[in-house]
Specification:
Blueprint lengths: L1 E12 L2 E11 L3 E5 L6 H8 L7 E6 L8 H5 L2 E4 L11 H8 L8 H10 L13 H12 L6 E5 L7 H14 L6 E5 L12 E6 L2 E7 H7 L1 E5 L6 H4 L2 E6 L4 E5 L2 H8 L4 E3 L3 H10 L3 H8 L2
């Protein structure tokens, strides 16, 4: 079952465009949503949450369109922004009194558990909280109404490494449940290495990848070898290619061709998520081949 599904979604605002956005978020998994800053991740989350409308295409959440049943759908979603959009003069107690009525399954005991777990105080004003404390409060709110889908928009942005890892551990440990689904948007790719099962990658206004992470990482390989080995025909088999006087680095889905030709004189490794995004963002650099051939 797919908890979120976008089909042929188009959106434009001034010079910014999203073209034919199609992807799914499978139930019971952590889906990482990656792309460079400004690629459209937050815009797509706003489209999913019906905060803005697409110009064309369809968006389904729990197999329904948000506008047809918004209250019931949002009741099942735990939503965490990178910012806490609440009055900073309020205490946590006042925030709970304000938020709880919006959710049919709000559980004060669960909320209290997380507030205490995170070392927060019901009676302190939000303006006294650090960025990390505000993020923990957002997570406590998201976890306290028995949501089935959790959408995180840059949840670790602005956090120091220690707090960032703590937040990721919370997401990983608390949401391991086949009935719970996580959709996490981030530009800090290393955050996804230990928690993501599925990956959606947006580039230049369209979806470049969307599949289970294991399948993606089996598909692509990094090949390194002697710069004298490479020729134009082999470069055409790469998604990214860079060459210098000591060697070349290539991202390819056809590493077997390199191995069949050069055997153990090439090194073939599996990319990390970060390697994959960096190389695909840069794209194939045939000019590197041409530049050294002409020297």
């Amino acid at each position: 079952m797919n908890v979120i599904e976008l089909k042929n979604v188009h959106y434009q605002h001034k010079a910014f465009q999203l073209n034919d956005i199609t992807f799914r978020v499978p139930q019971g998994f952590v889906t990482g949503f990656i792309g460079a800053n400004g690629a459209g991740k937050t815009t797509i989350i706003r489209l999913i949450m019906d905060l803005i409308e697409p110009h064309d295409g369809d968006i389904f959440i729990f197999n329904q369109k948000m506008k047809n049943n918004a209250v019931a759908i949002k009741d099942k979603i735990g939503f965490v922004y990178s910012e806490l959009y609440l009055n900073d003069k309020w205490t946590i107690k006042k925030i709970e009194n304000y938020i709880a009525p919006f959710y049919s399954r709000w559980d004060h005991e669960i909320f209290k558990y997380y507030i205490e777990k995170f070392g927060l105080s019901f009676n302190k004003k939000i303006k006294t909280f650090s960025t990390g404390m505000k993020m923990k409060l957002s997570i406590a709110i998201a976890f306290s109404h028995q949501a089935e889908l959790f959408i995180f928009d840059e949840p670790t942005s602005g956090l120091d490494p220690i707090i960032r890892n703590e937040v990721l551990d919370i997401i990983q440990k608390e949401l391991i449940d086949e009935r719970k689904t996580v959709f996490i948007s981030t530009h800090i790719i290393s955050d996804l290495e230990k928690i993501a099962d599925y990956l959606v990658y947006i580039k230049d206004g369209h979806i470049a990848l969307g599949d289970f992470l294991d399948n993606i990482l089996k598909q692509f390989q990094i090949v390194k070898g002697d710069p004298q080995q490479i020729d134009e025909e082999l470069v055409q088999l790469t998604h990214y290619f860079e060459r210098n006087k000591t060697g070349y680095t290539a991202l390819t889905t056809q590493a077997n061709v390199f191995y069949e030709i050069f055997g153990n004189s090439v090194t073939i490794t599996t990319p990390t998520i970060e390697d994959l995004m960096v190389y695909l963002e840069k794209g194939t650099r045939n000019n590197e081949y041409d530049r050294y051939e002409n020297e």
